[in-house]
Specification:
mainly alpha, 2 domains, 2 strands, about 0% strand
Length: about 350
């Protein structure tokens, strides 16, 4: 083997390893090239969005599909260049056309390499030695396998995206389309009846766990951004954490004791924090902000929430404000790290404060 062929073989192995880690190994934060490529594409798209003015949200919403297309093209180009480097020295000798003079330039090598990787095949050039015939066979197996794996991966990504959107829409509808956790709690415990709330929250906890694992297995999900903030991970994460905090600090602890100490409440808190922490560690999110939430702002938010609950006939306690402020200070910075990464402001996420 020539040095050129060694480089080509190494390039093919590199891209195959990247496809293996992204598609089959499927863990957030793994991958050799794909994570860096995705971040670069997203950074470029954010730059274009800043120049688009009022169309910023629409431009960013193209991020997920464009990254998918570009990643497939990136893998295809990498494999083709690697195969071309392996094939190039063999042009005109072991690999040649059935008739006529053989071209030995690198562009021809790229064309021949693409044909050898294609499941359709074609072209005038064909192998004429045992080694090159085996090379063509290997390339055809690689091409068909990669195509099948990538198509299957995309089906799973879009299936997981549908499930994530279903969870986000469910949370939004449970708030009465307001995006406020207090409204959601008022509907979960109408007139102070908390008997059915645990089962409803249990369903949400299961959907949340599935969404967290979907982001773990399919990191591309992070880059799918919708113009409507209700579908944002940061939005439904904020609502769920605010809901749990209100249950633990604002509800009358005696009247709704079974709900306050129920497993689904703990599961919602822990699952949401796991999701936010994983996104913060694996994707290009904002740096950890300073404590920007003023105590007076959080106190007003608590007062508005308890007023909403009282008007709905939900019994509350009067001494939970300090616990609410302290608890919210522990989780709100995590939301503030994730939200700007996809172009959302905290006013779009925290609907009670924005009003």
């Amino acid at each position: 083997m020539t040095f050129e062929q060694v480089v080509g073989a190494a390039l093919e192995v590199l891209f195959l390893a990247d496809i293996f880690l992204t598609v089959l190994y499927a863990r957030a934060g793994t991958g050799l090239l794909a994570p860096r490529w995705n971040r670069a594409m997203w950074a470029s798209l954010r730059g274009a969005a800043r120049l688009s003015g009022g169309r910023r949200g629409a431009v960013l919403s193209l991020g997920g599909p464009l990254i998918v297309i570009s990643l497939i093209g990136f893998w295809s180009l990498g494999l083709t260049v690697g195969a071309a480097l392996v094939i190039h020295p063999e042009l005109g000798t072991a690999i040649r056309p059935s008739s006529g003079e053989a071209s030995t330039d690198f562009v021809t090598a790229l064309l021949v390499a693409g044909n050898s990787l294609s499941i359709v095949g074609g072209g005038d050039y064909s192998p004429h030695t045992t080694g090159t015939r085996l090379l063509y066979l290997l390339h055809s197996l690689i091409g068909s396998s990669v195509l099948s794996l990538v198509l299957s991966y995309l089906v799973q990504v879009y299936s997981a995206l549908r499930e994530r959107n279903a969870l986000a829409l469910t949370v939004h509808l449970m708030t009465g389309s307001t995006g406020e956790a207090a409204q959601m709690l008022a509907r979960l415990a109408p007139d102070g009846d908390c008997s059915n709330a645990s089962s409803e929250l249990g369903n949400l906890a299961r959907s949340l766990a599935a969404t967290k694992e979907a982001h773990h297995f399919y990191p591309l999900l992070f880059y799918f951004r919708f113009e409507e903030p209700l579908y944002a991970v940061s939005r439904f994460s904020f609502v769920l954490l605010d809901l749990v905090t209100l249950i633990e600090t604002a509800l009358d602890q005696t009247h709704c004791a079974s709900l306050v100490r129920s497993g689904p409440v703990t599961s919602l808190r822990d699952g949401t924090l796991l999701l936010l922490d994983m996104l913060s560690q694996s994707f290009p999110v904002a740096s950890s902000p300073n404590d920007t939430s003023e105590t007076s702002h959080l106190r007003r938010s608590y007062a508005a929430a308890t007023d909403t609950l009282a008007r709905a006939g939900v019994p509350t306690q009067g001494d939970g404000i300090e616990s609410y402020v302290a608890d919210r200070r522990t989780w709100e910075p995590r939301v503030e790290r994730v939200a700007p990464a996809l172009g959302y402001t905290m006013d779009e996420i925290d609907r009670r404060s924005s009003r």
